[in-house]
Amino acid sequence: MASTDPLKRALKKEGLRYTQQRQSVWDELCATDDHRDAEEIYLAIRQSELHVSRATVYRTIDVLVKNKMVRKLDLGDGRARYEHKMNATHHDHLICIQCGKIEEFVDEVIESRQDEIVKNFGYKLVRHIHQLFIICDECKTP
User: Fold this and answer.
1) Which domain holds residue 25?
2) Strand, coil or helix: what is 70?
3) Cα atoms found within 13 Å of the Cα of residue 9, Cβ hemisphere only
Protein backbone atom coordinates (compact mmCIF):
# COMPACT_ATOMS: atom_id res chain seq x y z
CA MET A 1 0.00 0.00 0.00
CA ALA A 2 1.34 3.43 -0.97
CA SER A 3 1.86 6.03 1.72
CA THR A 4 -1.38 7.67 2.82
CA ASP A 5 0.22 10.95 3.92
CA PRO A 6 0.71 12.62 0.51
CA LEU A 7 -2.75 11.48 -0.54
CA LYS A 8 -4.38 12.79 2.64
CA ARG A 9 -2.62 16.16 2.23
CA ALA A 10 -3.74 16.46 -1.41
CA LEU A 11 -7.34 15.54 -0.60
CA LYS A 12 -7.47 17.96 2.33
CA LYS A 13 -6.08 20.73 0.12
CA GLU A 14 -8.89 20.05 -2.37
CA GLY A 15 -11.55 19.88 0.34
CA LEU A 16 -12.16 16.15 -0.13
CA ARG A 17 -12.43 13.37 2.43
CA TYR A 18 -9.93 10.53 2.62
CA THR A 19 -11.63 7.24 1.72
CA GLN A 20 -10.46 3.68 1.12
CA GLN A 21 -11.66 4.01 -2.50
CA ARG A 22 -9.43 7.05 -3.09
CA GLN A 23 -6.56 5.23 -1.38
CA SER A 24 -7.10 2.30 -3.75
CA VAL A 25 -6.66 4.61 -6.76
CA TRP A 26 -3.38 5.90 -5.33
CA ASP A 27 -2.25 2.36 -4.46
CA GLU A 28 -3.04 1.12 -7.95
CA LEU A 29 -1.12 3.97 -9.57
CA CYS A 30 1.90 3.29 -7.35
CA ALA A 31 1.75 -0.49 -7.82
CA THR A 32 3.32 -0.35 -11.27
CA ASP A 33 5.47 1.85 -13.48
CA ASP A 34 3.12 1.23 -16.41
CA HIS A 35 1.49 4.11 -18.26
CA ARG A 36 -2.22 3.37 -17.99
CA ASP A 37 -5.40 5.25 -18.75
CA ALA A 38 -8.11 5.86 -16.16
CA GLU A 39 -10.25 3.00 -17.43
CA GLU A 40 -7.39 0.51 -17.04
CA ILE A 41 -6.81 1.76 -13.50
CA TYR A 42 -10.53 1.48 -12.74
CA LEU A 43 -10.69 -2.10 -14.07
CA ALA A 44 -7.60 -3.14 -12.10
CA ILE A 45 -9.18 -1.86 -8.88
CA ARG A 46 -12.47 -3.60 -9.66
CA GLN A 47 -10.60 -6.90 -10.18
CA SER A 48 -9.45 -6.62 -6.58
CA GLU A 49 -13.17 -6.77 -5.71
CA LEU A 50 -13.13 -3.34 -4.09
CA HIS A 51 -16.20 -1.34 -5.03
CA VAL A 52 -15.14 1.98 -6.53
CA SER A 53 -16.99 4.10 -9.06
CA ARG A 54 -15.50 5.39 -12.30
CA ALA A 55 -16.28 8.91 -11.12
CA THR A 56 -14.18 8.37 -7.97
CA VAL A 57 -11.28 7.04 -10.05
CA TYR A 58 -11.40 9.97 -12.48
CA ARG A 59 -11.81 12.59 -9.74
CA THR A 60 -9.02 11.11 -7.63
CA ILE A 61 -6.67 10.99 -10.62
CA ASP A 62 -7.46 14.65 -11.33
CA VAL A 63 -6.57 15.57 -7.73
CA LEU A 64 -3.33 13.57 -7.95
CA VAL A 65 -2.36 15.28 -11.21
CA LYS A 66 -3.23 18.73 -9.83
CA ASN A 67 -1.06 18.04 -6.77
CA LYS A 68 1.87 16.79 -8.86
CA MET A 69 1.74 13.26 -7.50
CA VAL A 70 0.86 11.80 -10.90
CA ARG A 71 1.96 12.83 -14.38
CA LYS A 72 -0.63 12.97 -17.16
CA LEU A 73 0.70 11.98 -20.58
CA ASP A 74 -1.00 13.10 -23.78
CA LEU A 75 0.07 10.72 -26.51
CA GLY A 76 -2.07 12.22 -29.24
CA ASP A 77 -4.59 9.38 -29.42
CA GLY A 78 -7.28 10.96 -27.24
CA ARG A 79 -6.56 8.72 -24.21
CA ALA A 80 -4.59 10.30 -21.38
CA ARG A 81 -2.14 7.95 -19.65
CA TYR A 82 -0.93 8.34 -16.10
CA GLU A 83 2.21 7.48 -14.17
CA HIS A 84 3.03 8.13 -10.53
CA LYS A 85 5.79 10.60 -9.72
CA MET A 86 6.66 9.37 -6.24
CA ASN A 87 10.38 8.58 -6.02
CA ALA A 88 10.50 8.67 -9.81
CA THR A 89 13.49 10.17 -11.51
CA HIS A 90 13.14 12.38 -14.56
CA HIS A 91 12.75 10.49 -17.81
CA ASP A 92 11.44 10.94 -21.32
CA HIS A 93 9.36 8.62 -23.50
CA LEU A 94 9.54 6.67 -26.75
CA ILE A 95 5.97 5.92 -27.90
CA CYS A 96 5.04 3.47 -30.65
CA ILE A 97 2.35 5.02 -32.83
CA GLN A 98 1.01 1.61 -33.83
CA CYS A 99 0.79 -0.50 -30.67
CA GLY A 100 1.11 2.21 -28.00
CA LYS A 101 4.14 0.63 -26.31
CA ILE A 102 5.97 3.18 -24.14
CA GLU A 103 9.66 3.00 -23.28
CA GLU A 104 11.28 5.36 -20.81
CA PHE A 105 14.75 6.77 -21.39
CA VAL A 106 17.19 9.34 -20.09
CA ASP A 107 19.80 10.95 -22.31
CA GLU A 108 22.21 13.35 -20.62
CA VAL A 109 23.18 14.93 -23.98
CA ILE A 110 19.56 15.88 -24.63
CA GLU A 111 19.14 17.14 -21.07
CA SER A 112 22.30 19.25 -21.32
CA ARG A 113 21.34 20.65 -24.74
CA GLN A 114 17.90 21.68 -23.47
CA ASP A 115 19.53 23.53 -20.59
CA GLU A 116 21.89 25.30 -23.02
CA ILE A 117 19.04 26.36 -25.30
CA VAL A 118 17.03 27.80 -22.43
CA LYS A 119 20.11 29.58 -21.02
CA ASN A 120 20.96 31.05 -24.46
CA PHE A 121 17.52 32.60 -24.60
CA GLY A 122 17.95 33.96 -21.09
CA TYR A 123 15.11 31.91 -19.66
CA LYS A 124 14.71 29.53 -16.73
CA LEU A 125 13.62 25.96 -17.47
CA VAL A 126 10.69 24.99 -15.27
CA ARG A 127 9.80 21.61 -16.76
CA HIS A 128 9.75 19.83 -20.06
CA ILE A 129 8.12 16.88 -21.76
CA HIS A 130 10.13 15.04 -24.36
CA GLN A 131 8.24 12.38 -26.32
CA LEU A 132 9.55 10.63 -29.39
CA PHE A 133 6.88 8.94 -31.50
CA ILE A 134 8.28 5.84 -33.15
CA ILE A 135 7.40 2.48 -34.70
CA CYS A 136 8.79 -0.23 -32.42
CA ASP A 137 10.63 -3.34 -33.58
CA GLU A 138 7.57 -5.56 -33.17
CA CYS A 139 5.40 -3.27 -35.31
CA LYS A 140 7.91 -2.59 -38.08
CA THR A 141 8.54 -6.31 -38.66
CA PRO A 142 6.06 -7.58 -41.30
Assistant:
1) 4-84
2) strand
3) 7
